[in-house]
Specification:
Blueprint lengths: L1 E8 L3 E7 L5 E7 L9 E5 L25 H15 L9 E6 L10 H12 L5 E7 L6 H14 L6 E5 L5 H7 L7 H11 L7 E7 L7 H7 L5 E7 L4 H5 L11 H12 L4 E3 L5 H5 L6 H5 L15
Parallel strand pairs: 4-5, 5-6, 6-7, 7-8, 8-9, 9-10
Antiparallel strand pairs: 1-2, 2-3, 3-4
Amino acid sequence: MRVIESFGKEEIALVYLAEMNNGKYVEFVESLQPPIPRERKWVLIVSTLFGCPVKCKICDASGDYRGKVSEEEILEQIDYLVTKRFRDRKVPIHKFKVQFARMGEPAFNREVLKVLKRLPDIYDAPGLMPCISSIAPAETGDFFEELIEIKNRFYTSGHFQLQFSLHTTDCAKRDFLIPVGKWSFDEIADYGERFYKDGDRKIALNFAATEGFPIDSGTVSGYFNPDVFIVKITPLNPTRSVTENGLKSLFRLDDDVARCLVRDFEKKGFEVILSIGELEENKIGSNCGQYVTRIKDKVKSAEDYTGCRM
């Protein structure tokens, strides 16, 4: 793997673009959550596909899909970031998150499961917490069944985070945003009940709040158990795809709409994470695949690359 370029700020996030040995490109990220120091929380976000076949309307990875990132190629991304700061691979960080969420839907790549099994042996990291963020594609049941086994064997006591990206409670509009076969709300709810055990982190239901795309607390509570699921609400990131599809974020910083959504879900018994993030991340491109849209013209054979985190 050859890192071609990086961009960002040490105190917020750094984005890396790398050429793999097969000539394809990946993007990966290390980020912080100010004012929390690195010693308390450090987040790595890695790619699992070269591009993505899903073509979500809010995501810049939905360009030319060039296949799956191998087990070793995923590990190379992680190891580059770890050994840059901890050469002995001892990571003394309270919450060390590794998110499989930069480029590509992780459930399409079973190599992710192999990586999950290996991480505890490679790194001396008591705070290690992998995170799978998924749209719950159809016909990925085998992936998610094995994920239960891996979580129960390697990542007990809240050391694993699972998130399903729903974005709206309107099924037709969900199909518009995520134009691929996927699990119904019933199927996600049933799986969550089997995945979750006492002591686990609750499963997050993620909504990137978008104008014209309802997020109804009553619909969510009709399917999902607040003892098992938590609600995460984020603004819509200003990606190129969002602009091209004429989409607008439902709220921004300190918005009454956001507070109303939070109250509605709390009345239904849900814990709610309102994840705004740093505005500076939009400039860096660490929260979604904007960085590569700025530099892809510099990269030779850039037509082989497109990228974003889900």
